[in-house]
Amino acid sequence: MRNESDVDTAKELPTVISFCSGYGGLERGLELAGVEHRVLCYVEIEAHAQALLVKSMEQGDIPPAPIYSDLTTFPSHIFRGSTSLITAGYPCQPFSQSGKRQGADDEQGRHLWPFIREHIRAIEPAGCFFENVYGHISLGLSTVISDLEEDGYKVEAGIFSAVEVGADQGRKRVYIQAHIPNTMRERGRSGDTQREDAADAGELPRGSWDYTRGVGHWDSEPSMGRVAHGVAHRTDRLRLLGNGVVPQTAALAWSVLSQI
């Protein structure tokens, strides 16, 4: 039985809603970056990803949390005022250079940013943390940033890759971190920051990884060339991994963007 002193000293963790969760790579990235948090719920439409999240909960790898299947009908109003951070690896197909790049006109309805923005407005989180493909830079990213700024968020974005955290693949991705000024911790730039102050002319800042932190080059992965450990086999695995976030890259992105 908890006494009054237990209640007074209980630690209240920042709360997270995870959109387009996949296997929870962004949330794992937050953990690796030292950001303790509690996930209120996941929103994921892919059945295989849902099953993997449930399995992870059953095995005790992640705490139990509800899983919603449809972002477009998510009841955001019930989470208003109770959420610290929204994460999302929203679908990349509308922006990917390997696809038709139809952006907001994606014929398969995969352009979900308008829905995410409406949820942000309804929930009013203190911050957001998003991931998408490199092609998002030239298609759609400026809209996301301007929408967030219009809604009162301070926004930072950068290019980060898996090779920077020791993988043997490039896998360049754009990460976006946004927060309402004075609601999330704002840090000054570190004097020994590991990023280039201005990468190439016209490009977003890039990250780099400090290998003295104990993260060296990864051992060889299976032939699919992905971060495959703990994910089910064959087609569903490949699909999930292809759309998934590399947690170590997400950790790097969070750490670097937090220092800007």
Task: Provide tags for this entry.
alpha/beta, 260 residues, seven-stranded mixed β-sheet, 7 helices
Total of domains: 1
Please tell me the overall pLDDT.
Answer: 76
CATH level 1 name? Alpha Beta
First-residue to last-residue Cα separation: 44 Å
Count of runs of 4 or more consecutive helical residues: 7
Number of strands: 7
Would you tell me which CATH topology applies?
A: Rossmann fold
Verbal overview:
The chain has 260 residues and is α/β, with parallel strands linked by helices. The protein has a single domain (12-257), classed as 3-Layer(aba) Sandwich (Rossmann fold). Helix content is 26%, strand content 15%. It has seven helices and seven strands, in the order αβαβαββαβαββαα. It has helices at residues 4-9, 25-32, 47-58, 113-123, 141-150, 234-243, 247-257; strands at 15-19, 38-43, 67-68, 85-88, 127-133, 154-160, 173-179. A seven-stranded mixed sheet has the order 3-2-1-4-5-7-6, with helices on both faces. Strand 1 (15-19), helix 2 and strand 2 (38-43) form a beta-alpha-beta unit. The protein starts with a helix and ends with a helix. Mean pLDDT is 76; it is low at 4-10, 96-103, 185-203, 208-218 and 220-228.
Summarize the structure.
With 260 residues, the chain is α/β, with parallel strands linked by helices. Helices cover 26% and strands 15% of the residues. It has one domain (12-257): Vaccinia Virus protein VP39 (Rossmann fold, 3-Layer(aba) Sandwich).
How do the helices and strands line up, and which of them pair or pack?
Elements: H1 4-9, E1 15-19, H2 25-32, E2 38-43, H3 47-58, E3 67-68, E4 85-88, H4 113-123, E5 127-133, H5 141-150, E6 154-160, E7 173-179, H6 234-243, H7 247-257
Parallel strand pairs: 1-2, 1-4, 2-3, 4-5
Antiparallel strand pairs: 5-7, 6-7
